[in-house]
Protein backbone atom coordinates (compact mmCIF):
# COMPACT_ATOMS: atom_id res chain seq x y z
CA UNK A 1 0.00 0.00 0.00
CA UNK A 2 1.72 3.19 -1.14
CA UNK A 3 2.04 5.63 1.72
CA UNK A 4 2.75 9.30 1.35
CA UNK A 5 5.50 10.36 3.69
CA UNK A 6 6.29 14.01 4.36
CA UNK A 7 9.88 14.36 5.55
CA UNK A 8 10.33 17.69 7.29
CA UNK A 9 13.92 18.65 8.03
CA UNK A 10 15.48 21.48 9.92
CA UNK A 11 19.14 22.33 9.49
CA UNK A 12 21.27 23.89 12.24
CA UNK A 13 24.61 25.57 11.52
CA UNK A 14 26.74 23.18 13.57
CA UNK A 15 26.78 20.32 16.12
CA UNK A 16 26.29 22.60 19.14
CA UNK A 17 23.23 24.26 17.60
CA UNK A 18 21.88 20.84 16.61
CA UNK A 19 22.17 19.61 20.21
CA UNK A 20 20.29 22.70 21.43
CA UNK A 21 17.59 22.10 18.79
CA UNK A 22 17.28 18.48 19.91
CA UNK A 23 16.98 19.48 23.58
CA UNK A 24 14.28 21.97 22.66
CA UNK A 25 12.46 19.33 20.59
CA UNK A 26 12.52 16.76 23.41
CA UNK A 27 11.17 19.30 25.91
CA UNK A 28 8.54 20.76 23.57
CA UNK A 29 7.17 17.32 22.68
CA UNK A 30 7.20 16.18 26.28
CA UNK A 31 5.34 19.35 27.35
CA UNK A 32 2.77 18.78 24.57
CA UNK A 33 2.18 15.16 25.59
CA UNK A 34 1.87 15.98 29.29
CA UNK A 35 -0.52 18.84 28.53
CA UNK A 36 -2.66 16.47 26.42
CA UNK A 37 -2.45 13.24 28.39
CA UNK A 38 -0.82 14.00 31.72
CA UNK A 39 2.14 11.72 31.00
CA UNK A 40 4.71 11.10 28.28
CA UNK A 41 6.55 8.02 27.09
CA UNK A 42 9.76 8.64 25.19
CA UNK A 43 12.15 6.21 23.49
CA UNK A 44 15.72 7.35 22.91
CA UNK A 45 18.59 5.98 20.89
CA UNK A 46 22.20 5.46 21.79
CA UNK A 47 25.35 6.09 19.84
CA UNK A 48 27.28 9.36 20.12
CA UNK A 49 25.03 11.97 18.49
CA UNK A 50 22.38 12.35 21.21
CA UNK A 51 24.91 12.57 24.07
CA UNK A 52 25.36 16.34 23.90
CA UNK A 53 21.60 16.90 23.77
CA UNK A 54 21.12 14.65 26.82
CA UNK A 55 23.78 16.65 28.70
CA UNK A 56 21.99 19.90 27.80
CA UNK A 57 18.71 18.49 29.17
CA UNK A 58 20.50 17.76 32.44
CA UNK A 59 22.43 21.03 32.68
CA UNK A 60 20.94 23.30 35.39
CA UNK A 61 22.48 26.36 33.72
CA UNK A 62 20.42 25.68 30.56
CA UNK A 63 16.67 26.39 30.11
CA UNK A 64 15.59 22.86 29.33
CA UNK A 65 16.16 21.09 32.65
CA UNK A 66 13.70 23.36 34.42
CA UNK A 67 11.08 22.98 31.66
CA UNK A 68 11.19 19.22 31.27
CA UNK A 69 8.26 17.53 33.11
CA UNK A 70 10.60 14.93 34.62
CA UNK A 71 8.05 13.59 37.11
CA UNK A 72 5.70 12.69 34.24
CA UNK A 73 8.09 10.80 31.96
CA UNK A 74 8.53 7.09 31.27
CA UNK A 75 11.90 6.76 29.54
CA UNK A 76 12.65 3.81 27.27
CA UNK A 77 15.40 2.92 24.82
CA UNK A 78 14.97 2.27 21.09
CA UNK A 79 17.73 -0.31 21.23
CA UNK A 80 20.62 -1.64 23.26
CA UNK A 81 23.81 -3.47 22.71
CA UNK A 82 23.88 -6.91 24.38
CA UNK A 83 26.39 -5.88 27.01
CA UNK A 84 26.10 -5.19 30.76
CA UNK A 85 24.73 -1.76 31.77
CA UNK A 86 28.16 -0.57 32.94
CA UNK A 87 29.91 -1.61 29.70
CA UNK A 88 31.49 1.22 27.66
CA UNK A 89 29.28 0.26 24.68
CA UNK A 90 26.02 0.35 26.68
CA UNK A 91 23.47 2.91 25.49
CA UNK A 92 22.07 2.92 29.00
CA UNK A 93 25.49 3.75 30.47
CA UNK A 94 25.96 6.61 27.99
CA UNK A 95 22.55 8.03 28.93
CA UNK A 96 23.12 7.52 32.65
CA UNK A 97 26.42 9.38 32.55
CA UNK A 98 25.17 12.21 30.28
CA UNK A 99 21.74 12.68 31.83
CA UNK A 100 20.17 10.18 34.24
CA UNK A 101 22.67 10.76 37.06
CA UNK A 102 21.83 14.49 36.95
CA UNK A 103 18.03 14.67 36.62
CA UNK A 104 15.12 13.83 38.97
CA UNK A 105 13.87 10.70 37.19
CA UNK A 106 12.95 7.94 39.65
CA UNK A 107 14.25 4.39 38.95
CA UNK A 108 10.68 3.24 38.23
CA UNK A 109 10.52 5.78 35.37
CA UNK A 110 13.61 4.39 33.67
CA UNK A 111 13.11 1.28 31.53
CA UNK A 112 16.36 -0.01 30.15
CA UNK A 113 16.81 -3.05 27.94
CA UNK A 114 18.66 -5.68 29.99
CA UNK A 115 21.63 -6.08 27.71
CA UNK A 116 23.36 -8.32 30.23
CA UNK A 117 20.86 -11.12 29.57
CA UNK A 118 20.69 -13.61 26.70
CA UNK A 119 19.45 -11.54 23.69
CA UNK A 120 16.19 -13.45 23.22
CA UNK A 121 15.44 -13.25 26.95
CA UNK A 122 16.26 -9.53 27.04
CA UNK A 123 13.93 -8.95 24.07
CA UNK A 124 11.12 -10.96 25.63
CA UNK A 125 11.46 -9.16 28.96
CA UNK A 126 11.52 -5.78 27.24
CA UNK A 127 8.39 -6.72 25.33
CA UNK A 128 6.69 -7.67 28.60
CA UNK A 129 7.79 -4.38 30.13
CA UNK A 130 6.27 -2.48 27.20
CA UNK A 131 3.02 -4.42 27.53
CA UNK A 132 2.72 -3.69 31.22
CA UNK A 133 3.76 -0.03 31.14
CA UNK A 134 1.48 0.72 28.18
CA UNK A 135 -1.33 -1.49 29.50
CA UNK A 136 -1.44 -3.45 26.24
CA UNK A 137 -3.70 -6.39 25.44
CA UNK A 138 -3.52 -8.96 22.63
CA UNK A 139 -1.92 -7.59 19.49
CA UNK A 140 -1.86 -3.97 20.72
CA UNK A 141 1.19 -1.94 19.72
CA UNK A 142 2.54 0.72 22.11
CA UNK A 143 2.31 4.34 20.95
CA UNK A 144 5.28 6.35 22.15
CA UNK A 145 4.84 10.10 22.25
CA UNK A 146 8.36 10.57 20.91
CA UNK A 147 10.89 8.21 19.36
CA UNK A 148 14.35 9.64 18.76
CA UNK A 149 16.44 7.81 16.15
CA UNK A 150 19.99 8.09 14.91
CA UNK A 151 21.36 6.87 11.61
CA UNK A 152 24.54 4.96 10.89
CA UNK A 153 26.62 5.59 7.78
CA UNK A 154 25.38 2.18 6.58
CA UNK A 155 21.76 3.37 6.72
CA UNK A 156 20.83 1.47 9.87
CA UNK A 157 18.65 2.99 12.54
CA UNK A 158 17.79 1.62 15.97
CA UNK A 159 19.44 -1.80 15.69
CA UNK A 160 17.77 -2.42 12.36
CA UNK A 161 20.88 -3.12 10.32
CA UNK A 162 21.00 -3.85 6.58
CA UNK A 163 20.07 -7.41 5.62
CA UNK A 164 19.26 -8.49 9.19
CA UNK A 165 16.34 -10.53 10.48
CA UNK A 166 14.76 -7.80 12.58
CA UNK A 167 13.82 -5.85 9.42
CA UNK A 168 11.13 -8.50 8.86
CA UNK A 169 9.85 -8.75 12.44
CA UNK A 170 6.30 -7.42 12.45
CA UNK A 171 4.75 -9.52 15.21
CA UNK A 172 6.98 -8.74 18.14
CA UNK A 173 7.42 -5.40 19.92
CA UNK A 174 11.12 -5.97 20.56
CA UNK A 175 13.53 -8.34 18.88
CA UNK A 176 17.02 -9.74 19.33
CA UNK A 177 19.03 -9.04 16.22
CA UNK A 178 22.42 -10.50 15.31
CA UNK A 179 24.58 -8.03 13.38
CA UNK A 180 27.00 -10.15 11.40
CA UNK A 181 29.46 -7.46 10.40
CA UNK A 182 29.82 -6.45 14.03
CA UNK A 183 29.64 -10.05 15.25
CA UNK A 184 27.36 -8.65 17.93
CA UNK A 185 23.85 -9.08 19.28
CA UNK A 186 21.48 -6.17 19.77
CA UNK A 187 17.94 -5.78 21.10
CA UNK A 188 15.74 -3.33 19.22
CA UNK A 189 12.23 -1.99 19.04
CA UNK A 190 10.61 -3.36 15.91
CA UNK A 191 9.24 -1.34 13.01
CA UNK A 192 5.56 -1.59 14.02
CA UNK A 193 6.40 0.04 17.35
CA UNK A 194 8.64 2.77 15.94
CA UNK A 195 6.17 3.60 13.16
CA UNK A 196 3.25 3.74 15.58
CA UNK A 197 4.78 6.62 17.55
CA UNK A 198 3.12 10.03 17.57
CA UNK A 199 6.40 11.75 16.73
CA UNK A 200 9.48 10.13 15.20
CA UNK A 201 12.59 12.19 14.65
CA UNK A 202 16.05 11.45 13.38
CA UNK A 203 18.89 13.33 15.04
CA UNK A 204 21.81 13.23 12.60
CA UNK A 205 24.95 15.35 12.42
CA UNK A 206 28.34 15.44 10.77
CA UNK A 207 29.68 15.41 7.21
CA UNK A 208 30.10 11.63 7.32
CA UNK A 209 26.29 11.27 7.30
CA UNK A 210 25.63 13.48 4.24
CA UNK A 211 25.88 10.67 1.68
CA UNK A 212 23.69 8.21 3.57
CA UNK A 213 21.03 10.84 4.22
CA UNK A 214 20.87 11.51 0.50
CA UNK A 215 20.62 7.80 -0.31
CA UNK A 216 17.95 7.17 2.30
CA UNK A 217 15.69 10.13 1.59
CA UNK A 218 16.38 11.03 -2.02
CA UNK A 219 17.17 7.77 -3.78
CA UNK A 220 14.81 4.92 -4.75
CA UNK A 221 13.58 2.56 -2.07
CA UNK A 222 16.07 -0.17 -1.24
CA UNK A 223 15.06 -0.94 2.32
CA UNK A 224 17.11 -4.11 2.83
CA UNK A 225 20.21 -2.03 2.15
CA UNK A 226 18.84 1.19 3.70
CA UNK A 227 16.72 0.22 6.72
CA UNK A 228 16.15 3.86 7.66
CA UNK A 229 13.78 3.97 4.66
CA UNK A 230 11.49 1.67 6.64
CA UNK A 231 10.78 4.46 9.13
CA UNK A 232 7.39 5.62 7.87
CA UNK A 233 5.42 6.93 10.85
CA UNK A 234 1.69 6.18 10.74
CA UNK A 235 0.92 9.90 10.98
CA UNK A 236 2.67 10.44 7.64
CA UNK A 237 5.27 12.87 8.93
CA UNK A 238 8.93 12.19 9.71
CA UNK A 239 11.12 14.87 11.27
CA UNK A 240 14.85 15.21 10.70
CA UNK A 241 16.99 17.40 12.94
CA UNK A 242 20.26 17.87 11.08
CA UNK A 243 23.31 20.04 11.05
CA UNK A 244 24.56 21.77 7.90
CA UNK A 245 27.34 19.25 7.31
CA UNK A 246 24.95 16.29 7.38
CA UNK A 247 22.34 18.05 5.23
CA UNK A 248 24.87 19.08 2.55
CA UNK A 249 23.48 16.74 -0.14
CA UNK A 250 19.77 17.30 0.58
CA UNK A 251 17.75 19.94 -1.29
CA UNK A 252 18.47 23.47 -0.01
CA UNK A 253 16.32 24.72 2.86
CA UNK A 254 14.29 27.93 3.00
CA UNK A 255 15.50 31.08 4.79
CA UNK A 256 14.38 29.58 8.13
CA UNK A 257 16.56 26.51 7.59
CA UNK A 258 13.58 24.24 6.89
CA UNK A 259 13.08 21.77 4.02
CA UNK A 260 10.47 19.22 2.95
CA UNK A 261 10.82 16.01 0.94
CA UNK A 262 7.62 14.26 -0.17
CA UNK A 263 7.89 10.51 -0.81
CA UNK A 264 5.30 8.01 -1.97
CA UNK A 265 6.54 4.53 -1.04
C1 LIG B 1 23.07 2.53 18.71
C2 LIG B 1 22.01 3.43 18.19
C3 LIG B 1 22.18 3.51 16.70
C4 LIG B 1 22.70 4.91 16.45
C5 LIG B 1 23.37 5.01 15.11
C6 LIG B 1 24.03 6.38 14.95
O1 LIG B 1 22.79 1.66 19.54
O2 LIG B 1 24.21 2.76 18.30
O3 LIG B 1 20.80 3.26 18.61
O4 LIG B 1 21.05 3.30 15.92
O5 LIG B 1 21.61 5.83 16.55
O6 LIG B 1 24.34 4.00 15.05
O7 LIG B 1 25.05 6.47 15.92
P1 LIG B 1 25.93 7.80 16.09
O8 LIG B 1 25.00 8.82 16.68
O9 LIG B 1 27.03 7.40 17.01
O10 LIG B 1 26.40 8.18 14.71
Detail the topology: elements first, then pairings.
Layout: E1 4-12, H1 15-37, E2 40-44, H2 49-58, H3 63-67, E3 73-77, E4 79-81, H4 91-98, E5 110-111, H5 119-134, E6 146-149, E7 174-179, E8 184-189, H6 191-195, E9 199-204, H7 210-218, E10 237-243, E11 258-264
Parallel strand pairs: 1-10, 2-3, 2-6, 3-5, 6-9, 9-10
Antiparallel strand pairs: 1-11, 4-8, 7-8
Residues 45-49, 78-79, 91, 150-152, 156-159 line the site of 6-phosphogluconic acid (6PG).
CATH top level class name: Alpha Beta
Distance between the termini: 8 Å
- Tally of alpha and pi helices: 7
Class by SSE composition: alpha/beta
Assess the beta-strand content as a share of residues: 15-25%
Radius of gyration: 17 Å
Which kinds of small molecule does this entry bind, naming each only once?
6-phosphogluconic acid
**Would you list the SSEs in sequence order as H and E?**
EHEHHEEHEHEEEHEHEE
* Major sheet description: 8 strands, mixed
- What form results from the Cα inertia axes? globular
Amino acid sequence: MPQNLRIVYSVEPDAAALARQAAEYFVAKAEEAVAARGWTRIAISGGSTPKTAFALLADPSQPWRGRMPWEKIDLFWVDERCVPPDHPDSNYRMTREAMLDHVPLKPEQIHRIEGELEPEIAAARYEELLRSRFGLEGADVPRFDVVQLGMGTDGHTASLFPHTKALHEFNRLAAANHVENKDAWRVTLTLPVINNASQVFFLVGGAEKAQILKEVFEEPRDAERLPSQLITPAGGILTLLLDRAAAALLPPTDAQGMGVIERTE
